[in-house]
Amino acid sequence: MAKSKNNTISYEAADVQVLEGLEAVRRRPGMYVGGTDIRGLHHLVYEVVDNSIDEALAGVCDEIDIIIHKDESITVRDNGRGIPTAPHPQKQVSTLELVMTTLHAGAKFGEGGYKVSGGLHGVGVSAVNALSEWMEVVVDDPRDGKQYFQRYERGRPQEAVKAIGKAKRPGTKTTFRFDPTIFRDVSYRFETLAQRMREMAFVTRGVTIRLVDERPDDFAHQMTFYFEGGILSFVRYLNRNRDPLHPPIYIEREVDGLGVEVAIQYTNSYSESVYPFANTIHTMDGGTHLTGMRAALTRSINDYARKANLLKERDPNFSGDDVREGLTAIVSIKHPDPQFESQTKVKLMNAEVKGVVESVTAEALLEFMERDSSSARKIVDKCLTSSRARAAARQARDLVIRKSVLESLTLPGKLADCSERDPARTELFLVEGDSAGGSAKQGRDRHFQAILPLRGKILNTERAGINKVLSNKEVQALISALGVGISDQFDLGNLRYSRVILLMDADVDGAHIRTLLLTFFYRYMQELVEHGHLFIAQPPLYRIEAGRQVQYVYTEQEKDRALEKLEGKKANLQRYKGLGEMNPQQLWETTMDPERRTLLQVTVEDAAEADRTFTMLMGSAVPPRKRYIQSHAKEVRNLDV
Questions:
Q1: Residue 303 annotated in active site
Q2: Known active-site residue 398
Q3: What pLDDT digit, counting tens, does each position of 156-209 carry?
Q4: Which one is catalytic: 507, 558, 581, 605?
Q5: Residues contacting 167, CB < 8 A, separation 6+
Q6: Cα distance between residue 395 and residue 403, in whole Å
Q7: Is 507 a catalytic residue?
Q8: Quick one: which H or E segment has residue 535?
Q9: Where are the beta strands (DSSP E) in 281-361?
Q10: 355 phi and psi, to 5 degrees?
Q11: Of the residues 55, 140, 213, 432, which is catalytic?
Q12: What are the chain's domains?
């Protein structure tokens, strides 16, 4: 739009733009793949793999290969039916080209090619094509026995679809490289892709998924996923570092074309680990299937506890929080026409799903508890313990959660607050120890930086109930300073600081304290992490002074390179054993100054794997942690901490 003579912005017919083909995707990639960061980059792979998974759901594919090549291109290959290559009857162009270059083109809108699928909008693979520097598709078409090929650059076909030989194994092979002008300074994480492929293999029983990373110089990294037990195997996998209270409960029903699968198992832990899926897609924000499962759980356990006289007449019913403590569950539905909140499919919206899932789950749970009274008693006892702990913690809740921080005047005395009152402009440093806290208070910018010193190692919240968590003074100070509450009382809108920064010593004790804090945030303030508010500061290991030149280095390798460059010069090397050894000016220059510091943002891309890792590292089971330490001992010995 142009400005007129009176400096207002004009809005005329000529200002209305019509975006042709896939140009809309390139203009607004966030609408289609969730962003241009590493999440969006991985989403490109998920969209292509989803098409192969849909072939598996149709019963015509049982092998899927994903290969990360050295140039960061990706190949996804399956043994399904292959994308049709014949001319489309309406458009008179190869159906392959139509699917790859046209939004809302696919076989999943009607009742034709797929009974159940995850790719429903006809947007996924064409959006990936639009956001790729180049893409090549090879189809081994069993319909006419020929192999077809087409290449695209930034979504535009470079030639017509052509036959290049005889078909070999039926299926589709798609190779693409993301467009570096859209996805800048990002690279695929093997661990993130592996976690997603593992989840897909769990919820798509009997399908082999291979993930290969060719980027390492020594040898390719490869993982193969195949789970005959489906989501039942998924629950066992999540609980392998926990102490289960009973055998897993598995539920499978089909009601009016809607397939429902639920796997449930309680453990002695204090956390809830529930993962919902719709047509194999992990709906991270839940939806109606998750709501239905949770409602069934609360109703069924209360009904059984009353019937078995385990809840007395004067006792209140268990709340949703009571019955979800220690719960590990997977709910997976297969719907012929699922409605998602957006193209990224993070939430299921079909209203009818809630009632079906609730009815199926409640019926099966009551049947299980009546058949296995011993397991049922353990489940009810777990809920009773949780309920009593919450009652004991209610007074502490009222103090540090339900009242606003400013109204109740519960800001901790050791908090050195900042003068800025706009949360979007402020940050809070959680600092290890009073000595380092003193340096940080003196070195900070008082206008927007607040300091909260933490004394010693805080409570391991992985092993403690909520009443014990809320009675811990360091945790109380942390909750009060942030102002958001915890668990079901959490309200991100009350956050007093937009950045929460963990500032610990660069040693083993500092790493331990950081892990304890990360455990607390993951279990009780996960939204804070998910919305990008949690960071880890990177204090230097060494200060190198040569004449008037001063340099700070953060790793042993950086130190060695710096000393090599100073060869022949007299250099003074100072090793910082802790933050307390740094004066306020040094701490500001190296770790707190926004212009010069390095912050690592904490994200939770892979919730299931993060859940399992926190349980393994911080839970009560010793053997899994011992195995992990022994298997990584060589790596630890190579680090000078």
A1: no
A2: no
A3: 999 999 999 999 999 999 999 999 999 988 999 999 999 999 999 999 988 999
A4: 507
A5: 82, 140, 141, 142, 144, 145, 146, 147
A6: 11
A7: yes
A8: strand 534-537
A9: 281-282, 327-334
A10: -65, -40
A11: 432
A12: 23-225 (3.30.565.10), 231-392 (3.30.230.10), 406-539+600-604 (3.40.50.670)
